[in-house]
Fold this sequence. Notes:
Four copies of one chain form a homotetramer. By secondary structure, chain A is an alpha/beta fold. Chain A is 32% helix and 29% strand. Chain A has two domains: 7-92, ACT domain (Alpha-Beta Plaits); 97-293, Rossmann fold (3-Layer(aba) Sandwich). The longest helix of chain A has 24 residues, at 257-280. The first copy, chain A, is globular. Chain A starts with 10 loop residues before the first strand and ends with a strand. Chains in contact: A-B, A-C, A-D, B-C, B-D, C-D. Chains A, B, C, D: One of its GO terms (molecular function) is formyltetrahydrofolate deformylase activity.
Amino acid sequence: xxxxxxxxxxxxxxxxxxxxxxxxxxxxxxxxxxxxxxxxxxxxxxxxxxxxxxxxxxxxxxxxxxxxxxxxxxxxxxxxxxxxxxxxxxxxxxxxxxxxxxxxxxxxxxxxxxxxxxxxxxxxxxxxxxxxxxxxxxxxxxxxxxxxxxxxxxxxxxxxxxxxxxxxxxxxxxxxxxxxxxxxxxxxxxxxxxxxxxxxxxxxxxxxxxxxxxxxxxxxxxxxxxxxxxxxxxxxxxxxxxxxxxxxxxxxxxxxxxxxxxxxxxxxxxxxxxxxxxxxxxxxxxxxxxxxxxx
Amino acid sequence: xxxxxxxxxxxxxxxxxxxxxxxxxxxxxxxxxxxxxxxxxxxxxxxxxxxxxxxxxxxxxxxxxxxxxxxxxxxxxxxxxxxxxxxxxxxxxxxxxxxxxxxxxxxxxxxxxxxxxxxxxxxxxxxxxxxxxxxxxxxxxxxxxxxxxxxxxxxxxxxxxxxxxxxxxxxxxxxxxxxxxxxxxxxxxxxxxxxxxxxxxxxxxxxxxxxxxxxxxxxxxxxxxxxxxxxxxxxxxxxxxxxxxxxxxxxxxxxxxxxxxxxxxxxxxxxxxxxxxxxxxxxxxxxxxxxxxxx
Amino acid sequence: xxxxxxxxxxxxxxxxxxxxxxxxxxxxxxxxxxxxxxxxxxxxxxxxxxxxxxxxxxxxxxxxxxxxxxxxxxxxxxxxxxxxxxxxxxxxxxxxxxxxxxxxxxxxxxxxxxxxxxxxxxxxxxxxxxxxxxxxxxxxxxxxxxxxxxxxxxxxxxxxxxxxxxxxxxxxxxxxxxxxxxxxxxxxxxxxxxxxxxxxxxxxxxxxxxxxxxxxxxxxxxxxxxxxxxxxxxxxxxxxxxxxxxxxxxxxxxxxxxxxxxxxxxxxxxxxxxxxxxxxxxxxxxxxxxxxxxx
Amino acid sequence: xxxxxxxxxxxxxxxxxxxxxxxxxxxxxxxxxxxxxxxxxxxxxxxxxxxxxxxxxxxxxxxxxxxxxxxxxxxxxxxxxxxxxxxxxxxxxxxxxxxxxxxxxxxxxxxxxxxxxxxxxxxxxxxxxxxxxxxxxxxxxxxxxxxxxxxxxxxxxxxxxxxxxxxxxxxxxxxxxxxxxxxxxxxxxxxxxxxxxxxxxxxxxxxxxxxxxxxxxxxxxxxxxxxxxxxxxxxxxxxxxxxxxxxxxxxxxxxxxxxxxxxxxxxxxxxxxxxxxxxxxxxxxxxxxxxxxxx
Lengths: 295, 295, 295, 295
């Protein structure tokens, strides 16, 4: 069962991106030091191509004599000094994040995430699972999670109301992550925009190879020697969102498409789980269609 | 230095592809057993999609009371019984194979292959290296290998004579493998046809991603989390030939294009060396645009 | 849900080891060809160190006009001609194999195998799960599998009756595989002997490094840069049985022991699942403390 | 050819370890910011087990109006404020580092490093190569590098003078790295002490498995499914020094010891090259027998 960390492990996590300039780290770290904050983990990245600076800092919550709201409020001044484009957030690991899963019939990513949640591996609770088929309802409910069945009409042009219902259900949980766990449906542009930066998909190929449908069939036809999976943020352009994580697994001439499918599941599960964990731990900053991952 | 194996390691290597049918293995293995042949290594593959059968068998040469020519001549009957489409070859590892390398300015694949040849790792001799630039001549000659400089005119339309000269030089060595070791030039269709099944290229991406020029720049722009390399047979369609081997290496947001280039070299060297060794050891059978690799 | 394969995928799987000699393949393949048998997959290995020969052959069941018992009975003569030491078996994939799992409190390998069984990935049914703690009972039962709780006394010297009870429960299912899925208890020698070749363990280190207790703590203390997992057959000597599969995952200085534990789970699950599948598909032959795996 | 970087890529690299305390980053980054320094790359690590803090910061040299000596001299005050145990260094990538290689007969790591140096991949020059055999002299000299032959007497007890000569030769180059590139000789304790933190070895196993002689034979006997290589700092206890890097490669039952040796070379070369590059770029901090690698 997912539960907030013990107080000694509770962190305030600051993520920030801004135009690169002299003295950013000095300002941020001086601000934290003056509050007595103990920085447990820190990542920095200066991108010479975009001229952008990125940082993530995890501060031991118990070392700061402030609540997260007050900490956030005081940090606002520092952020403002770094310029109007500065994009930052401050989260508190003492508050568990919330996940909603969208699924269809393929069970492996769902099973994997339910198992990880049950094992306390995810810093989040799975609030609900929504399926356009009901096949996976029972295992979801056995884990004590609510399952919603939103059937889809055959005709793709008539799916508007179903997506509307999904939006309503998802939003009712105010999720930090909307995970398409082999959902197999293309989200309409309005949902992509509405859940921007929160909707994660797992695509069963090493993108940008084999965009779209039946990537394992495409990979088999081309005769590749490795197959892969890609976890990316959902954007209106299909399979083109910022990539959080990818990995591959070796195949050979003896493997048929069904072997690709079977072996690919293992890599899909791992890649989605890693990408999701990094997202939930605020390790991912997006800029210019690409991600910085402080893993 | 490459040298033929000691007599105890000498093998006759049979490779064969034919329409799948009952009793192929029985026929081949009975033929070999009746000659007293000791099969040291055997690979089989039935492809259910194409209905094609593939095998590679390595027989201890000293266990057969025949020379390779006589062995080959006797096997012809067995092959004919398997049908007119049967495609087979029989080689003798007692005769070292011959390699010609085509290079440009990038040294890493060349260095790597020269080092492997010097270390006795390749079952072949490097007969000559041909470069459209002369930069790499001295290291080639330090290894006691002949270097030919065939300069290319700027205008791609005027390169016919240079390619003609290369063809002449290459063919004078009757090579078993023509290796484009970061040659960076597209072979004209007639050379692709002429060296079909013998010309190997290393492409610095995980094909079919990032076909063509500057794949590391393309990979950087897309924000992938792994970069790769692909060893493939050269065909007229660019970067579309049958794939022998691929591998990848992890990159992250801190890596710039030049880091991709540097790290990519390691995977290019490995992938090319593996693919080339398999080719030289007659481990690769091509059918329908794909490879069977009995590695 | 695991179910026998459709008839077109049903195979008779022959595995055989014997002293290497001329003509083994010829005899076996001629025998199969004379019955009209279509060999779908074949692996061969001659070990020059031990002088032993190994093969695995999968024959399309529908191509043979015999049941498995009659096929087995006829093959006996072939096997006898290969010498008295010949060790062979013939199985029928039309009969699902049976697994019993032994668990303790760690859920991840159990969840993973239950998920794979539910997804039809394993050619076997999970007959029962036995735990020395009851923590995992509910998820087992939610999958429709029987859970037996056999509590262990604190004093290791008084565990004889508990192991006796486990032996009884396990044997009542006549399992093809007894899987120690993070069971965390050392089997007594009589059980190791009784289940020889059928009991698989997952050890959370890259053996032979870090034998015994708390391998992740040992790995952390040594400062290794990769951690691993090993699936091996259980033998009386601790963590010294024949290895079926191993894999590793990268760690770095920022990872604490608890991160090793978390990341290690992913590799434990994969390595156990791969080893178990190979075992169930009769891909593993053991000889001289080592395995031949026709994967 | 290795050459110092262009001025725009020149960096001052600060590495520092000290007892963890509030405000370290603030002090260091404020100091750098006040000089106008632009931090190009920064790594931080707090170790909760040892209570030690580590950082590496790369500052664009052209952004600081001081030479490296003056910068170092001013930083001394900051370091002193962090306590008397503080261990720090400041290097200038404008000055190429120096490497001396120790070799025996195995050529692959030597070839690989010479090739990398020739390709400009290493931020260092290879000053000299010393061999206890003369086999590799010619290739070294073809790269324009001095080769010293220091023959070893058969009797290990009489090698003192040879090691004395090696020490003299090595020290004459004031190297930043003394690389045992498959040197195959155990350094005497006084040399281990003298070159502490500068002598790197490549061991051909995944340590701590298979310490000492003939690790591939040991690995073959145990039947492992992956073989590895380890780059570590040399210490008086054999193969027990702090590990910089490790990696593995898959083997199977068909691989004999000589295949392990051949395939192992590829991973030895890569692991040594990575470890050496990190060492030369001041990415490695050693504490308590383990490394922090800001890679």
